[in-house]
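In response to reviewer comment 3 from the previous cycle, which asked for concrete evidence that the modeling workflow produces usable outputs, we include below a single protein chain processed end to end. The sequence was submitted unchanged, and the resulting structure tokens are shown without manual editing.
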Amino acid sequence: MTAPTRLLVLGIDAASPDLLDRWIADGTLPHLRALVARGVVGRTRGVDGFHIGSTWPSLYTGTDPSHHGVHYLVQLVPGTYQLHNVATGEFVRGEPFWKTLSNAGKRVAVLDVPLSRLDRSLNGVHVVEWGGHDSLYGFQTSPVDLGQDLAARYGAHPLGGACDAVRTSADDYSVFLERLERGVATKVAWTKELLARGGWDLFMQVFTEGHCTGHQCWHLHDAAHPGHDPRVAESLGDPLRRIYRAIDAAVGELVAAVGSETPVIVFSAHGMSHWYGAQFLLEEMLVRLGVTTPFPAVPAGFAGGVEGVARSAWRALPSSVRSRVRDLRHRLAPESPTAPPPALRVDAARSLCFPLNNGLAVGGIRLNLVGREPEGKLRPGAEADAFVERLTGELLAVIDERTGRPLVRRVIRTAERYEGPMLDHLPDLLVEWSDEVPTGSTVVNGGRAAVVRARSLELGAIEGANDYGRTGEHRPGGWFVAAVPGVASRAIGRAVPLIDLAPTFTRLLGVEMAPCGGRPVEELVL
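The workflow returned the following structure tokens.
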């Protein structure tokens, strides 16, 4: 096929594929429905075991995390027991597809793509975090005067820098949703201005408002969720439907602005559903199993100075109160990537393995290997393999007392799935929690179903409460529709790998990405 001269790419961040399909079918989302009628529609398959921090870097580089090196925003420094904020360092290795296009002489506009760093060398414009869900760098633009103009005429996103906060009443949620709607409308206004300047080869915008709504309001959308409050839900209607409709209208305006001859791709990189699992139990599970060593307990009566008193007082607060304070602190003063990263909460040097953050849906475990870690305890090879086999069996044997079934769906050994040069930057084991039942929160609807109690022969009984205020959590599968002139409309039966989107975008504009894990989607480019 002849390469088109322009391409419009629109992201609906973390939209549920099931809800998109349902609301397109029933006419709730008329503009997406119109695209589906003339386009190729399908699902995407996320990066196995890494569908939180890795999703966007994997999408825009066309590589998996063993190549681009990012699995979470706070990661272990290889060869140490220290954590670091990855956004302050090299961050994502590999070239974003828009850089490939820019280097080939294409003019690009890249707007609000999550987890991306400003690139002042692009041939075009770059806007970072005017309305991002994750605020790593704050609002920045290239050229600089573009940001000054947007700020002067449109101001900041109405929601501010973070969407996490404690909300309890219909009024709280009403204000939240109204600000998200205004955010979508404002974004469309300045996006159309940039689009109208013309001369673009690639024009890309991402709407993150659906991401915020899914995390904060899933319990109001889903009547089966333990946090569901019928009175609030009746007052508001369905929050997700409301924000998806606002984004659908925005998509309609932008598609109309480019005309029917311009190829358009709309996608959701990963999905959303109920919050689940028991990531808050992983550390204690590993301690109970005797494979992770906790720091010595502070002796009774030991104050440890002012800081020790403060820590003791903090730990004495109920978990629900601590969560509210965290949420309020984050809302008033969101953490900066330049802030000191948290330290590991266990004595990693004396442990056989230790937990690493990898998101809340899939936990991470690092083996303390001889020759890799400073004070390694497990010898690579047969000894480490036997340890992993035993630990995997013990984790899979843990029963969730809510269901009588395993709490852990599977344990993935990262090196058996990935082999890139950044493999040592990733956890060695990935603990995927079962999502059979939703987990409540101590700060939502009286804390219903926030406690998870688990047991096994090796572990005994263990329980803990989720004090995180989100009620929606990501799923690894995404969705897309591509309306490309000359390509017949159809539904793709297979799940397209997420990393295939980047080389598809460049191929549609006649440019090839350097060899990477992704390949152009043949249904769109051949």
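The two ends are 6 Å apart (CA to CA). We consider this sufficient to address the reviewer's concern, and the full set will be provided in the supplementary archive.
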